[in-house]
Structures are given as C-alpha cells and as structure tokens.
Amino acid sequence: MNESILTIAMPKGRIFGDACRLLRNAGFRLPETFETTRKLILELDSEPFRFILAKPVDVPTYVEYGAADLGIAGKDVLLESGRDVYEMVDLGISKCHMAVAGKPNHRSRNPFLKIATKYPNIASNFYRRRGEQVDLIALNGSIELAPIIGLADAIVDIVSTGQTLKENGLVEFDRLLDISSRLIVNPVSYRLKKNLIDQIVEKMIKATEGTKIGMD
Ligand SMILES: Nc1ncnc2c1ncn2[C@@H]1O[C@H](COP(=O)(O)OP(=O)(O)OP(=O)(O)O)[C@@H](O)[C@H]1O
Ligand SMILES: O=P(O)(O)OC[C@H]1O[C@H](OP(=O)(O)OP(=O)(O)O)[C@H](O)[C@@H]1O
C-alpha cells in the first residue's frame, strides 16, 4: 500500500460511465480518453490519485486486499462477495433491483424447487430467511434462459428496465433488494490515510446529492 498516492478501483462495464460522471462532478480531472483507453492503470497529472480498471465483481477483492484504497461497486456485488471493506457512500448511480422471477404459471408452486442465479449467497440468504429449502443452480449469465428451458423453476437476478423479463415471457414474483453503487474503502487505508479519504468521501457525497435530485 503506497502511502502518498491513493488507488481507486473502478468497475469496467455498465457502472463505469456513471462513475466517471460522478467523479468529474466531484472535481476529479479525469482526462477525456478515460472512457476509451484500453489501459488498466490510469494516473492523473499533478494529483495524487491513480485508477485501476477492474471487472465489477473483482473490485471488492482489490479493496479488501489493499491493492486499492477505495473502490466503486454495486451493492449486489458487495453483498454477494461478503468482502471486509467499509461501505462509505451510497453513490445513487447504476440503480436496479434484485428479484425472484419465473414463468407466470409457476407462481402457485411454492416453495420453488430449483433456483438459477448468478448470486448464490444472496439467494440462499433470502430463502433461508423465508424458511424455504431450495436447490440453487449457479449460472454466469443469460439467467432468464433457465426457467424457459426447464433448467430451473425460477431465477434470482437483477432487473433494471424489466425488458429482459418481458421479452422472455417471465414475471417478477418478489423484490429482494434495491441496488445502487457504493464507494468502498479498505479499513487499513482508512486508518493510515484518513484525512485524504475523508476529503474524497465529502466530495463524493456532495456530487452524489446532485445525482439524487429527480431520482425515484
Ligand atoms: N440491468 C443491469 N444488469 C446487471 N447489472 C446492472 C444493471 N443495471 C445496473 N447494474 C449494476 O452493474 C453491475 C454489473 O455491471 P456489468 O454488467 O458491467 O458487469 P458484469 O456483470 O461483470 O458484466 P458481464 O455481463 O460482462 O459479466 C451490477 O453489479 C449492478 O450493480
Ligand atoms: O431489466 P433489464 O434492463 O432487461 O436488465 C436486466 C438484465 O441485465 C442483466 O444481464 P446482462 O445484460 O448483464 O447479461 P448477462 O446475461 O450476461 O448477465 C441481468 O442479469 C438481466 O438479465
């Protein structure tokens, strides 16, 4: 862990654009090429920050191990990974929710027997709390395929616009969790670099207040 420079782990993909806009609103002078470069480590001119561009699911890992001091990660990824990091700010970006969904005529089949998901920990906690025993089938994508093709009775997955469910003839049964992206911090970094991190947290909270205006 470098004492004089802060490393921030950024999620590539869906969250990246929203996160860059928020960082710029917070006063970070990100270069124009930030969103298009294929470089994975980006340093800022004359500012003590460097950004690493990671797969979203890996951001909490970089932060927990101290390879990054801070990071931006979806609440879904944080809950699923259970990594030991401080969650400092709800950034209010990349909002979506997690739901149980399936074919409309499966509503009466309770408990569901087989649940396909990319989020086995979140799903198993949900069903444990409900006192229902289910078989979880871990998949890596195209989760909506599972109930259509008969691999599972239902899915636990992310819903944003609802288009994927709709186009595949599926309906939402239960809403598990509202999701947005969070600013996370490595606990040791926070102890050693508290002043600098607190300044960033404050700036991000201010920038976030702008993004929350007019949101649901
Ligand atoms: N419609 C959505 N589907 C999935 N994730 C979404 C959606 N809307 C917002 N998110 C947020 O974006 C994050 C996922 O981003 P992204 O899809 O780029 O990563 P990924 O799952 O690693 O992608 P990939 O499909 O390449 O595996 C989630 O953790 C969630 O917090
Ligand atoms: O409600 P919507 O706006 O349709 O978004 C939800 C869909 O987006 C995600 O899949 P993604 O596009 O990441 O593809 P994947 O199948 O590879 O997970 C998620 O797993 C849903 O399938």
Automatic annotation (TrEMBL):
<protein>
    <recommendedName>
        <fullName>ATP phosphoribosyltransferase</fullName>
        <ecNumber>2.4.2.17</ecNumber>
    </recommendedName>
</protein>
<comment type="pathway">
    <text>Amino-acid biosynthesis; L-histidine biosynthesis; L-histidine from 5-phospho-alpha-D-ribose 1-diphosphate: step 1/9.</text>
</comment>
<keyword id="KW-0368">Histidine biosynthesis</keyword>
<keyword id="KW-0028">Amino-acid biosynthesis</keyword>
<dbReference type="InterPro" id="IPR001348">
    <property type="entry name" value="ATP_PRibTrfase_HisG"/>
</dbReference>
<keyword id="KW-0067">ATP-binding</keyword>
<keyword id="KW-0963">Cytoplasm</keyword>
<keyword id="KW-0547">Nucleotide-binding</keyword>
<comment type="function">
    <text>Catalyzes the condensation of ATP and 5-phosphoribose 1-diphosphate to form N'-(5'-phosphoribosyl)-ATP (PR-ATP). Has a crucial role in the pathway because the rate of histidine biosynthesis seems to be controlled primarily by regulation of HisG enzymatic activity.</text>
</comment>
<dbReference type="GO" id="GO:0003879">
    <property type="term" value="F:ATP phosphoribosyltransferase activity"/>
</dbReference>
<comment type="subunit">
    <text>Heteromultimer composed of HisG and HisZ subunits.</text>
</comment>
<keyword id="KW-0808">Transferase</keyword>
<dbReference type="InterPro" id="IPR024893">
    <property type="entry name" value="ATP_PRibTrfase_HisG_short"/>
</dbReference>
<dbReference type="InterPro" id="IPR018198">
    <property type="entry name" value="ATP_PRibTrfase_CS"/>
</dbReference>
<comment type="similarity">
    <text>Belongs to the ATP phosphoribosyltransferase family. Short subfamily.</text>
</comment>
<feature type="domain" description="ATP phosphoribosyltransferase catalytic">
    <location>
        <begin position="55"/>
        <end position="204"/>
    </location>
</feature>
<keyword id="KW-0328">Glycosyltransferase</keyword>
<dbReference type="InterPro" id="IPR013820">
    <property type="entry name" value="ATP_PRibTrfase_cat"/>
</dbReference>
<dbReference type="Pfam" id="PF01634">
    <property type="entry name" value="HisG"/>
</dbReference>
